[in-house]
């Protein structure tokens, strides 16, 4: 371990109380995507107090804090933390003002970003970096609350549901060369995970079937049942599952937002939120077309009207070709405290999705998980049980990885930039996202009413 590594670790340990207090505060004040104003304010204030120039209000609540002046020579590494939480109203620490809880662990990720900022701002550490570091907060990673996000889109405030997607669209990543990402985990057998595998692409859709009310017992023939249309459509999707290739890891899932008004009234307004996932862009386009076809078939068979509003979700994560900087960070931390480390290699694939995947499509992304939480993520039983692992360890790994990328004329970052092969540039990324964004409409076509 060299002197700069020691200084980074020492600084984070010395500021442990402040870092943990930040994490606890964010945990108890969870906010939903594109509405994380309090969380963003605390993040931005701390960076400003460290003397950084902060660009605020990016994609509504996002921000970028520059360790050194903009335009500093050398590569720029982004340390990224997410702002939002989940709409889980029955967690014991749910924010009563928002109905949100950090059962996703984003509070720990954002806390680690702050911890890294404290360490890398130390003058002797800062001077050892042959490049710049941007501490970035990103909104709305959780793809929930779709009606609200569609409203933002129609108002022209945000075009995409994912915060990093929106930040890519508006050019906020244009001055970034390498991204560092983190997520919390509940794996009790490990302290840290090198997460370097692919993930699923997805699109999200709001599906509205329009029927006609009637007395369900007395005059059902006078109604057009939107619930039947939806049920028929879902059956059509189920029957097509055998047409999905195993290697494409297709997932089709959703739920009813609205299913009718009463048991004795033919449903005239049924709404579903639906998600289509697959391993590649090509596979998700294929599955998406089959799902849309099924929804149209349900409407056509029953005579219902139909509106399908599709919102592009996230891109597949592209594994990083070189994670040696992260491994060096793990080794440095492990000198004082042996770590239980697991590696998920590029040969593996997860069927979940993250907008870190979108970042990895345009630049190299080094991503790791740390534990210290218990329960099941996205559930109301998530708890922080080890603040050292949940908050302090990822702060050290963020800071040390950035240092290893930027030390010695930023040789690590330059090598990574040279061997990385982007899937898309910003222009082609936006072109793809726009191609998946759209609305399908069908008019109601019921049979003529029978004579009484």
UniProtKB/TrEMBL annotation:
One of its GO terms (cellular component) is cytoplasm. One of its GO terms (biological process) is folic acid catabolic process. GO terms for molecular function: dipeptidase activity; para-aminobenzoyl-glutamate hydrolase activity. Residues 206-296 form the Peptidase M20 dimerisation domain. Pfam families: M20_dimer (PF07687), Peptidase_M20 (PF01546). PANTHER family: PEPTIDASE M20, PEPTIDASE M20 DIMERISATION DOMAIN-CONTAINING PROTEIN. This is Amidohydrolase.
């Amino acid at each position: 371990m060299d002197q700069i590594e020691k200084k980074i670790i020492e600084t984070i340990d010395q500021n442990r109380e402040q870092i943990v207090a930040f994490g606890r505060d964010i945990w108890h004040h969870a906010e939903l995507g594109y509405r994380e104003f309090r969380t963003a304010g605390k993040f931005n204030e701390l960076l400003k107090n460290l003397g950084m120039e902060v660009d605020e209000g990016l994609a509504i609540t996002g921000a970028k804090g520059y360790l050194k002046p903009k335009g500093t020579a050398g590569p720029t590494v982004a340390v990224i933390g997410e702002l939002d939480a989940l709409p889980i109203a029955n967690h014991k620490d749910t924010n009563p003002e928002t109905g949100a809880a950090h059962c996703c662990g984003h509070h720990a990720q954002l806390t680690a970003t702050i911890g890294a900022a404290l360490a890398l701002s130390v003058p002797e550490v800062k001077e050892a970096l042959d490049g710049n570091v941007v501490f970035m907060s990103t909104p709305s990673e959780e793809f929930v609350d779709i009606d609200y996000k569609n409203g933002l889109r129609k108002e022209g405030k945000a075009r995409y549901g994912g915060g990093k997607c929106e930040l890519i669209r508006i050019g906020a990543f244009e001055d970034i060369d390498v991204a560092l990402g983190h997520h919390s985990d509940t794996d009790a057998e490990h302290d840290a995970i090198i997460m370097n595998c692919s993930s699923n692409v997805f699109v999200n859709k709001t599906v509205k079937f329009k029927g006609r009310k009637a007395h369900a017992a007395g005059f059902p023939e006078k109604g057009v049942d939107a619930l039947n249309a939806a049920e028929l459509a879902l059956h059509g999707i189920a029957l097509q599952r055998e047409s999905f290739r195993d290697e494409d890891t297709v997932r089709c899932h959703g739920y009813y937002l609205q299913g009718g008004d009463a048991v004795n009234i033919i449903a005239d307004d049924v709404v579903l939120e639906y998600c289509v996932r697959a391993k590649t862009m090509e596979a998700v386009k294929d599955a998406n077309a089959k799902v849309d076809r099924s929804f149209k078939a349900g409407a056509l068979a029953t005579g219902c009207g139909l509106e399908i509003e599709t919102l592009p979700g996230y891109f597949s994560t592209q594994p990083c070709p070189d994670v040696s900087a992260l491994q060096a960070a793990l080794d440095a931390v492990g000198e004082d405290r042996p770590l239980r480390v697991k590696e998920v290699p590029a040969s593996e694939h997860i069927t979940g999705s993250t907008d870190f995947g979108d970042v990895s499509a345009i630049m190299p992304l080094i991503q790791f998980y740390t534990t210290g939480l218990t329960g099941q993520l996205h559930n109301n039983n998530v708890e922080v049980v080890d603040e050292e692992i949940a908050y302090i360890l990822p702060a050290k790994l963020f800071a040390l990885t950035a240092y290893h990328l930027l030390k010695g004329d930023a040789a690590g970052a330059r090598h990574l930039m040279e061997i990385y092969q982007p899937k898309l540039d910003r222009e082609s990324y936006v072109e793809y996202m726009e191609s998946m964004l759209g609305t399908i409409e069908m008019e109601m076509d019921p049979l003529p009413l029978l004579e009484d």
